[in-house]
């Protein structure tokens, strides 16, 4: 009977050592994850600040709408006198207008602009 208790005690010690090793491993992993979490919180805070700064910088930028009306002729027309012009109104911001490519076929005399803030 004493021998059985001694054998049972030995098995329990092996289980205890395995559990202790697992506990140490899990504690180390927990500390690692906790540190990672703190670094992510700091990074998230910096990203929020950068986002707010970006939003603020775009809101400060002045926007001016420019209305442009042009007589546009169909490209298939070879003789402008026989073509019927189409009136087109374009309203966009200065940034959009600056980004548009220039057209060499546009008759500047047929365009009128209306600038409003």
Q: What do these coordinates show?
A:
This protein is an alpha+beta fold. The protein folds into two domains: 1-61; 65-116. Helices cover 56% and strands 19% of the residues. The protein is built from two helices and three strands. The protein has helices at residues 2-60, 94-99; strands at residues 65-72, 86-93, 111-116. Strands 2-1-3 form a three-stranded antiparallel beta sheet. The radius of gyration is 38 Å and the shape is rod-shaped. The chain starts with a helix and ends with a strand. Mean pLDDT is 74; it is low at 109-114.
What's the Cα radius of gyration? 38 Å
Number of helices: 2
The poorly predicted ranges are: 109-114
Helical amount among residues, as a percent range?
Answer: 55-70%
Structural class, please?
alpha+beta
Largest sheet: 3 strands, antiparallel
Strand content: 15-25%
Head-to-tail CA distance between termini? 99 Å
Tell how many strands the DSSP assignment holds: 3
Oligomer: single chain
Order of helices and strands: HEEHE
- What is the averaged pLDDT score? 74
Q: What's the shape?
A: rod-shaped
Side-by-side strand order of the widest sheet: 2-1-3
Write the layout of secondary structure elements.
Elements: H1 2-60, E1 65-72, E2 86-93, H2 94-99, E3 111-116
Antiparallel strand pairs: 1-2, 1-3
Annotation keywords:
2 helices; about 120 residues; 3-stranded antiparallel β-sheet; about 55% helix; rod-shaped; alpha+beta
Brief account:
With 117 residues, the chain is α+β, with helices and mostly antiparallel strands. It has helices at residues 2-60, 94-99, and strands at 65-72, 86-93, 111-116. The protein has a 3-stranded antiparallel β-sheet with strand order 2-1-3.
């Amino acid at each position: 009977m004493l021998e059985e208790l001694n054998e049972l005690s030995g098995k329990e010690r092996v289980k205890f050592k395995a559990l202790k090793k697992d506990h140490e491993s899990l504690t180390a992993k927990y500390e690692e994850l906790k540190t990672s979490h703190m670094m992510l919180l700091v990074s998230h805070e910096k990203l929020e600040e950068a986002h707010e700064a970006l939003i603020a910088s775009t809101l400060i930028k002045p926007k001016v709408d420019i209305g442009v009306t042009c007589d546009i002729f169909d490209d298939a027309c070879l003789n402008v006198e026989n073509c019927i012009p189409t009136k087109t109104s374009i309203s966009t911001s200065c940034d959009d207008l600056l980004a548009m490519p220039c057209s060499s076929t546009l008759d500047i005399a047929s365009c009128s602009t209306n600038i409003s803030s």
